[in-house]
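We both want to read discrete structure tokens more fluently, so let's practise on a single case. Would you supply a protein for us yourself, any chain you care to pick? Would you write everything just below, so we can both look at the same thing?
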Amino acid sequence: MIVSHVLDGARIQTRIDDKFVIDSDQPKPYGEDSAPAPYDIFLTGVAACTAYFAQVYCRKWKLPHAGISVELEPVFNAAHQLTNLKLRVRVPASFPKDHIAGLLRNAAACPVKKALESSPEISVEAMES
């Protein structure tokens, strides 16, 4: 279970299954910019998952994965609503050209990205401690 605790100002501490802790904060002027913003953490999950699935492809085909990286560029409209995620898988010049399409197909199989594509239902409710 993921549980977020409100700290001071705009800082939040989130625990994941009592194994990991992630601190977040809002950028100035809303917070102190002392940690990544929650939105940045959200987008990081998409990039990290995409990179992992690129690595899985390389391992399957016994291809080197050193030098492969994923860049994520979020695109927002005037109301600061996310309208597009541009993902770029960077490969070294020595990466076999005949494996590019497969690498991209596998990277695109990231379940975090797929969750965004299918727009999961989200509910918010109150409960007493």
The longest strand covers residues 82-90. Strands lie at 2-6, 12-16, 20-24, 69-76, 82-90. The two ends are 16 Å apart (CA to CA). The chain has two domains: 1-36, 37-120.
